[in-house]
Structures are given as C-alpha cells and as structure tokens.
Design a protein that fits this description.
By secondary structure, this protein is of the alpha+beta class. The chain contains 8 helices and 18 strands. Strands 11, 12, 13, 14, 15, 16, 17 and 18 form an 8-stranded antiparallel beta sheet that branches. A 4-stranded antiparallel beta sheet has the order 4-3-2-5, with no helix packed on it. Strands 1-10-9 form a 3-stranded antiparallel beta sheet, with helices on one face. Helix 2 crosses helix 8. The protein starts with 18 loop residues before the first helix and ends with a helix.
C-alpha cells in the first residue's frame, strides 16, 4: 500500500519527494496509473495523416502505457484518435500506415468507419442485442495546437487552457510553417528514473555548474521561472549579442533579449522555443531506472540554427544525462531521504513534486 506523499505548498518549508518515490516499484506503477493515464501526451504532427482517408497506427508510450492507438483523417479533414484494438477479439485493426475508406480487422472482418463506429460484422446475424455502443472503437479526446496533436486517455484537466497560456508568448510564431528536421531527430536512453530527468530540466540552478557553453550565452542572473496550473515556463535571457526573438510590439516581453522559452507540460513534455523553431522533448519511462528521451526539431528559420541558446543541444543533453545518472546512483543510498528547495531557483521542481503528489494521492 502506497502512503500519501506530502510536499508542503510553502517552498520555504517544503521537502522534496522522498528517495523512495524514485526507487519503489509500486510507486512506478502508481505513476503510470494515476499520473500518465490521467494527463495528456504529445503524439506528433498532423502530417502523420496528411490527406483525407489516411490512417496511422502507433503505440502510445510503448513499454509503459503500451496503448495501441490509431490516427485517422476523414474526407472532411477531421482527425480522430481511436483505439486500434478490435472490439470482437482484441486483434490490432491496422498494422501499418495506409489510405483506407474503412477500418477492417484482418482477423474476422469486423469493419468500422474512420470515426470508429462499427458498420459490419460477418456471421453475427443471430447475436442478440448487437451491435452495442461498446462494439465501436473507443475514441479518445484529442487537442490540436498548430500542427501538433495531443491525446488524453482519461485526462482530469483541460489541455486547451495550457495551450492558451503557451500562446501568450509563442503564439506569434507560425507553427504551421515549422518543418521536422529528420537529421536532428534523436532518441536518448538514460539509466535513471524519468522524474529525475524532469527534476533536472525544471531548474536553471545547475546551468553554471553543468553547462559551461550554455551558461556563456544565457544571463543566469535574469533566468526566470513562471508557474501555471499544469505547466511552467523558464525564460532564458541572452548574455550578449546571440540570437534572440524578434518579438511583436504587444508581446509581454517586447524589448527584452529573450534567447529561449522553455515550456514544460505536466507530466513529461518539453517544448523549447528558440529563434530558429522548437525542440520537442518527450520523456518516456521504460523501467523504474530507465528512460527514453526523444528529441524532435521543428525548424522555422534555418539561418538561426546552431547559434545561441538553441545550439549544441546534443552536448547539453549529454551533460544533463551525466548528472541525472549520478543522482540515480546517489538516491540508492540508505542515508539520503529527501532534500530541500531553493526558493529562488527551484520553483519549477517544487511545482512538479506537488503535482505528482496530488495526482498520486487522488
């Protein structure tokens, strides 16, 4: 039985989540069921189904949630996200991306329209009370932000509010014109708990100690963290003449030298905006002590690549991985129980820990 976690809402009094949070297998399962099943996930770009009657199967967070899902686009350009599991005997309905007017299970021929409604089943003429609503493919809630798609299995908060808050600062950027740079697409595998990776991301406290090159282009003294209900924003200011955003006059940061906007969406998504575009980082738990982090770079202005805060992303990642894996080794000690927060530098980590405790305790 998992005990309730307590993180004081007053950061000056609060302790971090205990070491047991990161090393208890029961907690890892509770995080899956109480956090990830009840939040949202980024599932990619609408170009996965780039024309009418396109169908795209995928596994949501494979080896963790491992939920077979299916994106479809109908002839009216409506995108749906469905379960990819046939309601007859549980077979996968679609095995690979394709163009299709209907979804037909290859096991016994049950067919569905592109919104998941069951339309035909052979040899079921004598079955009573058939079909029922449960014979349709389950349709999941989906939200769209520019070209980006998000899905919720059973979300307990509304993502649209989060997206609206992000738009306050990056809404001036033409997201529809961003293009995935396949050469910069990369997966990293880290021997550490997924939440430790997020802990590290959510504070700039470590930048002067871990990231020498990044620290040279960011003004650490002005580094800022803004908290929202299910998101936070870290603002990186330029130290010198490096690439900065060309902000419109009515922008809340107009006149400031902003090098980067680092958005974190609960529980595991990062959207790092630079003058060249956005780096989407998805943190995927695999095992209690193993994590996959996927980087997707969507480029708007190639001339600004590899400059300023948005350069050397691979080097910064390697530096982060080294310190996170060091923490993973450290929390195995019986003599480490919990830590405290810096009220000025670790507001983001404190916020994350409170959200995790709240979701698990529900």
């Amino acid at each position: 039985m998992i005990k309730n976690f307590k993180v004081d809402r007053d950061i000056t009094k609060a302790e971090t989540l205990p070491a047991s949070f990161y090393r208890n297998p029961e907690v890892f399962i509770a995080v899956r069921d109480r956090v990830f099943y009840r939040s949202w996930q980024w599932i990619g770009h609408e170009g996965l189904v780039d024309s009418p009657e396109k169908v795209y199967p995928f596994i949501l967070l494979d080896n963790f949630l491992t939920e077979p899902m299916l994106l479809t686009r109908d002839r009216e350009d409506r995108i749906s996200c469905l379960t990819n599991v046939c309601t007859h005997r549980g077979n996968l309905v679609v095995e690979r991306p394709k163009t299709a007017k209907k979804l037909i299970c290859g096991y016994h021929g049950r067919s569905f329209n592109l919104h998941g409604k069951m339309e035909h089943m052979p040899e079921f003429e004598d079955v009573e009370n058939f079909p029922r609503s449960c014979d349709n493919l389950h349709e999941f809630e989906i939200r769209k932000w520019g070209p980006f798609l998000f899905v919720g299995l059973n979300p307990i908060f509304e993502l649209q509010k989060v997206l609206d808050e992000m738009n306050e600062r990056v809404g001036f950027m033409p997201l529809q014109e961003f293009t995935l740079d396949e050469k910069r697409r990369k997966d990293y595998f880290i021997d550490a708990n997924w939440a430790l990776y997020c802990d590290n991301y959510l504070e700039g406290f470590h930048i002067p100690f871990v990231h020498e090159d990044l620290n040279a282009v960011l003004d650490y003294g002005d580094y800022d963290t803004i908290l929202y209900d299910h998101m936070n924003l870290q603002i990186g200011y330029s130290e010198g003449s490096e690439e900065v955003f060309d902000l419109p006059e009515k922008h809340p940061d107009y006149g400031k030298k902003i090098a980067a906007y680092y958005y974190w969406l609960f529980p595991n998504m990062m959207f790092n905006f630079y003058p060249w575009g956005v780096s989407v980082n998805l943190v995927q738990p695999l095992e209690m002590n193993k994590t996959k982090v996927s980087f997707y770079s969507y480029v708007y202005d190639p001339s600004k690549l590899d400059k300023g805060a948005g350069s050397q992303l691979d080097k910064v990642e390697m530096e982060d991985e080294a310190v996170v894996e060091g923490v993973q080794k450290g929390i195995r000690s019986r003599f480490y129980k919990a830590g405290r927060f810096s009220p000025t530098r670790e507001k983001g980590v404190h916020h994350f820990h409170r959200l995790l405790a709240d979701f698990i305790n529900l």
